[in-house]
Amino acid sequence: MSQINFYTIDLAKNVFELHGYPEHGKRLLRRRLNRSRLAGFFERDAQPGATVVMESCGSAHYWGRWLQARDFKPVLLPPKHVRAFVRGNKTDTADAHALALAWRVGDLHPVPIKSQTQQIIQLQHRMRDRQMAERIRVTNQIRAMLREFGVAVAQGDAALKRATLAHLEADASVPVTLQSMLSELYEEWRRLQDAIARSDRELERLYRASEPCRRLGEIPGVGVITATALIASIPDIHRFKRGRSLAAWLGLTPAEHSSGDKRNLGGITKRGNTHLRTLLIHGARSAVNQAHRYSDATSRWIVQLEARRGRNVAVVALANKNARIVWALLAHDAQYQPS
């Protein structure tokens, strides 16, 4: 045991594959443990202060915090990069060994361990996304049902509510059976509206309670939703050397396909966190739509870029710029200066 420098764990729900390795050489320890025996191993038998390598997957951040509290050094590696080191068939043993190979390469960027607060904010965002998707599904079904009976509903929640309530009353043009189904869908739609409002209020509370969130909220195109998502998804801003690194991590930089003296740049890479990138682009689109009303330097830049390259390019360029501003504000603990 004293020769072991690091451990690898293939995380699971109930059964965990644990391997132990020296700095160089073959595996010295292999055990298959359940949850309680894994915890007992690190509390009694493991080499104190050793590195523990895991994939960044379900429950990984919990185990990372648990190991940190016991003076171990947890490391979370991106699963998509570890997958390349799996040899042969995919098994728990192969996955644990792949983690050792990936860690020994030494060129992979670990995933920072999130705090409980950051995970709670992320879960709140996921819940809101699910509620939004379900509301869209119910809204489309109500519109489709009414359209089948000659009722075209205008865009917007208010128009949908008026049309639905009007046809829930006695109406010879709408069958009684349809009214019953329509009533059930309307109640579901209303419950989802209330749930989304509660999620928005909770995110607003988290936003007000976080000073970094409030600073990010001053950036044009970054509001409550985007600011809280950024703070929850970026545990350590200093892992990015510059603003461009954060923009590249979010997939907002051009994809490159180059060889020799030829350098070809295409559209954005769309790598990284899809949710964050979507929020930044939607926020940038809103700012681009309003830019002609203002005369500050950023608004003038947006208007000129839109006239020269088109709206979509201007939207993505502003999202890229905002990502760099986010890095500058967080890395230097600064306030946003519109000028």
Q: What's the arrangement of strands in the largest beta sheet?
A: 3-2-1-4-5
Indicate the percent of residues in helices: 55-70%
Amount of beta strand: 5-15%
Average per-residue pLDDT, rounded, comes to 92
Q: What ranges have pLDDT less than 50 throughout 5 or more consecutive residues?
A: none
Q: Quick one: how many beta strands?
A: 7
**Rg (CA only):** 26 Å
Count of the separate structural domains: 3
Q: SSE string, helix = H, strand = E? A: EEEHEHEHHHHHHHHEEHHH
Q: For the record, give the distance between the C-alpha atoms at the N and C termini, rounded to a whole number.
A: 60 Å
Largest sheet: 5 strands, mixed
- Count of alpha and pi helical runs: 13
Structural class by SSE content = alpha/beta
Shape: globular
Question: Can you characterise this structure?
Answer:
With 339 residues, the protein is α/β, with parallel strands linked by helices. It has three domains: 6-105, 2-Layer Sandwich (Nucleotidyltransferase, domain 5); 116-209; 212-331, no CATH class. The protein contains 13 helices and seven strands. The chain has helices spanning 35-44, 60-68, 79-82, 92-105, 116-147, 157-168, 176-209, 211-216, 224-233, 243-249, 274-290, 297-309, 311-331; strands at residues 6-10, 15-21, 29-34, 51-55, 73-77, 254-256, 265-268. The strands form two sheets. The chain has a five-stranded mixed β-sheet with strand order 3-2-1-4-5, sandwiched between helices. The protein has a two-stranded antiparallel ribbon with strand order 6-7. Helix 5 (116-147) packs across helix 9, helix 9 (224-233) packs antiparallel against helix 11 (274-290) and helix 10 (243-249) crosses helix 13 (311-331). The N and C termini lie far apart (60 Å). The mean pLDDT is 92.
